[in-house]
Write a structure and sequence with these properties.
By secondary structure, this protein is mostly beta strands. It has 2 domains: 188 residues, Jelly Rolls (Sandwich), CATH 2.60.120; 68 residues, Endonuclease I-creI. It is built from 2 helices and 19 strands. A 9-stranded mixed beta sheet has the order 1-4-15-6-13-16-17-19-18. A hairpin with a 5-residue loop joins strand 9 and strand 10.
Length: 299
């Protein structure tokens, strides 16, 4: 039986006193109602920025406590389904927002209709819906402020690989893991250059599994027979280097491959991606086919 977390059980910032919205057993399937990134505040394109409560941005559902998850474990979160619960998606941009802020003299909001699995950008342009979850995160003992910023524990990763069928692996540092989920997108471009993607409310179905006493260069994703290492750092160069180093470490674990051969393999067939450029911590990933690993890493 699936357990439900409603929109009323959302949080906007980390608080040590916050109680779990739900407690589940290992292997449970849960359904969460996710608010949109703006918490449904934007109903028209002419809305003035002064009318927006910025403290309500990026609400998350949770936290979810997983029984018997203890420090030193990994939490495997499989995205079984993403169901969009609106026919409208919203984007926001303006001065001092994103890397192209100098090109935008005025604040701007766009609302686009979704029909037949397409975002109606204009009469001539329709964009395919590619649903993703932007934020997945376990809690750490020394929680960062704001807590949605990407770290080794997850956060706003904004990876296009966080879609239906993908499994993301996150570390457990507090008992229960305490998983937070939010920021669903109707589609995700390669690299968030402004404050938002195609923001939209949704219901997501997740399967939660504990991997006892396992280590991994988190966050890491397995999707469509690929392994994806993600890293977030102050610069995109340092994020890319960390993601590459993590992948090299997985390839060379237990002397499966030399460092030289791992680097050559990534040069030949690694797929590099910029996940986001907007956040103070910028995020990059490297993808490699699982067939290159003699054994499934960290499983």
């Amino acid at each position: 039986m699936k357990k439900l977390v409603t929109r009323e059980q959302s949080t906007y910032e980390m608080d040590k006193l916050t109680q779990p919205a739900l407690t589940v057993k290992d292997g449970s399937v849960v359904k969460l109602k996710i608010k949109d990134h703006f918490n449904s505040q934007i109903h028209e394109e002419r809305l003035h920025y002064g009318e927006i409560d910025w403290k309500q941005f990026s609400p998350t559902s949770g936290p979810i406590f997983v029984d018997q998850a203890v420090p030193g474990d990994l939490l495997a979160v499989t995205i079984e389904k993403i169901k969009l619960t609106s026919n409208d998606t919203v984007l926001l941009n303006g001065p001092n927002i994103g890397i192209l802020d100098d090109l935008l003299p005025n604040n701007s909001i766009r609302r686009y209709k979704i029909q037949n699995n397409k975002i109606i950008y204009s009469e001539q342009i329709n964009i395919n819906v590619k649903k993703t979850i932007g934020l997945l995160k376990t809690e750490s003992r020394n929680e960062s402020k704001p807590f949605h910023l990407p770290t080794n524990y997850g956060g706003t990763l904004d990876s296009s690989h966080l879609t239906e069928g993908a499994t993301v692996f996150l570390p457990v540092e507090k008992n229960g893991g305490l998983l937070h989920v939010g920021d669903v997108h109707a589609t995700t471009g390669l690299g968030e250059i402004t404050s938002s993607y195609a923001e939209i409310p949704a219901e997501v179905t997740l399967r939660l599994q504990i991997l006892k006493n396992k280590k991994a260069p988190t966050p890491v994703i397995i999707q469509d027979n690929y392994l994806i290492c993600i890293a977030s750092k102050p610069t995109i160069e340092s994020a890319a280097k960390t993601a590459l180093q993590n992948m090299v470490n997985l390839l060379t674990d237990n002397n499966q491959m030399t460092i030289e051969d791992a680097v050559f393999l990534l040069s030949l067939d690694g797929d590099f991606q910029i996940c986001q450029l907007f956040q103070p911590s910028q995020t990059a990933s490297i993808k490699l086919a699982l067939e290159y690993f003699p054994e499934m890493p960290f499983l």
